[in-house]
Design brief:
There is one protein chain. The protein is α+β, with helices and mostly antiparallel strands. The protein is 19% helix and 40% strand. It has 1 helix and 3 strands, in the order E-H-E-E. It has one helix at 19-29; strands spanning 2-10, 34-39, 44-51. It has a 3-stranded antiparallel beta sheet, with helices on one face. Strand 2 and strand 3 (44-51) form a beta hairpin. The radius of gyration is 14 Å and the shape is flat. 10% of the residues are buried.
């Protein structure tokens, strides 16, 4: 199962600011199953959706 990144947010947001979570909540209200994950390599929060693998019936 892969992931598609919808948006990236730097981890250094001002205290009390949660832009990644707010963006994910907006997507979820639109029916998009978004979630927030931390990318330690780039020190950023990513809003992602999981992609399911497509299996053929062959």
């Amino acid at each position: 199962m892969g992931r598609v990144v919808l948006e990236r947010f730097p981890a250094g947001s001002p205290r009390g600011s949660w832009p990644a979570e707010e963006y994910a909540a907006q997507r979820m209200s639109e029916g998009v199953p978004a979630e927030v994950v931390m990318d330690l390599a780039t020190d950023a929060f990513l809003v992602v959706v999981r992609q399911r693998e497509v299996h053929s019936g062959h």
